[in-house]
Predict the 3D structure of the following.
Amino acid sequence: MEPDQSFESQFISWLREHRNILLKVAGSFASETAEQADLFQDMAIELWRSMPNFKGQSKPSTWIYRVCLNTAHTWQRSEQKRRQLQSPLDLVPELSCSSPLPGRLQEEAEIMQRLYQEVRALPVAERSLVILLLDGLSYREISEITGLTENHVGVALTRTRKKLSESLKEVRREF
Amino acid sequence: MSFEDLQQKWRNQFAESSRGADSQIEIELLDRIRRSERQFRHVVILLSLRDLVSFSLIVWILGKILDPSGQHLFLPLDREHRAILVVGIGLMIAISLAVIRYSFPRTRVTTSTATIAAIKSSLHRTRATPSTAEGGTDLPERFRSHVSRFDTMILWRDLRLLARAIFLISVAVMLAWRAQHYSAYVWMAVVLFTTATVSFLTYRLRTRAQRPPVDDTLLGTLTLSIYETRRQVQMLDNLWWYIAPLFLGLLLLGPVLLVVVGGGVRLKPIVGGLALVTLGWIVWRVSRWSARHELRPRLEHLEKLKSELSNDASSNQP
């Protein structure tokens, strides 16, 4: 049975509206552009499959975060296994950016690149919490996505935030 | 630069993408999704076809070889029928290979260079977009009534397993019913098949019934994954309770019956018996290997992740 047009158009509309969630999660879990694109695709497919299960009890963005982070965790496991099985030469080389960015934008891009590197260096569980924190979600919303209590989230994030601030001191000095 | 500044930059890192790049990504994604759904449907259709071929083949063979007088359980198969049997088995092998081909494509489905470039270019855009945490659209009612294809397929697979079990037991019961002289052996095989099937079904139903009541949060999903993986490990590690009665039943129906009917030990039943025992041993070893090498590392990883997520905070409380 082919999916109906309205289902597809709703999917596209959500994808347009919340595409940045997918991009941020992809950038936080994968370093190579090709891997990010792979993970982006996996998350989109999982969203498509999970859409019928969405009960509307939370905001679509909260639910999309759940699906994306769950998919990223699964992807990370399979990716680790895949990396163990192949030599580094088999990895798809990262595509270079088509054109150099102007000064200010270049600087911003470098800050983001450093931030992503630091986020990727965190353990997977902490990484998921940090992505949500950086995106400005409240403890209650993070608790809805992760299933932890708000108190739990608060304690975990205080420590993680401190850790991230320490490692980003250098970036702050540079910019 | 404060943490809040970084937060601000993070939230505003993606600009409204150009329509061209958006359309490119969407078109390609939809294409991939459609292809993936199509592949899944093809696998299911092929599996059904294989079941249909094997069921028809067994029924046809039984119709040809059963002794109508009931004096002998089986009559020898003539040359023409043997050729049809070989073609049928060949067809089943071909379908199985096609299923493997569809389930594990040789090349991983990857996004095209154009999409990678579009995603990369959007990673570098820095104009502000509205926060994802704000607002949200209402759920269209139609989604609630849209049944998940994925869940349906899993349910359908369980039903196929049940159909196979019922078919196997029915055939064995029919044989036992018709056998005049050696029915005790066939009835024993029926009991063994039924034991294996009922144990397997009970295990599956109990596993489903005991699933922890979890939600779709990260913690909930991890808890469910851990539960399901642990169950799989336990099942594959102890599959002897399923393999032993099944293969014992086949031994009784095949080599043992041949020895009894033939009135003495001959080479054919011995070779057949040894082949069956070896096959059973291989199935048992493969299931244990897959439990230890595939599922245990996955279980350990999931448990570590859950512990990181749920215990990390409490272990750091002042």
User: Anything to note?
Assistant: Chain A touches chain B through 92 residues (CB under 8 Å). Confidence is low (pLDDT under 50) at residues 85-99 of chain A. Residues 1-87 of chain A form a domain with the Rna Polymerase Sigma Factor; Chain: A fold (CATH 1.10.1740.10).
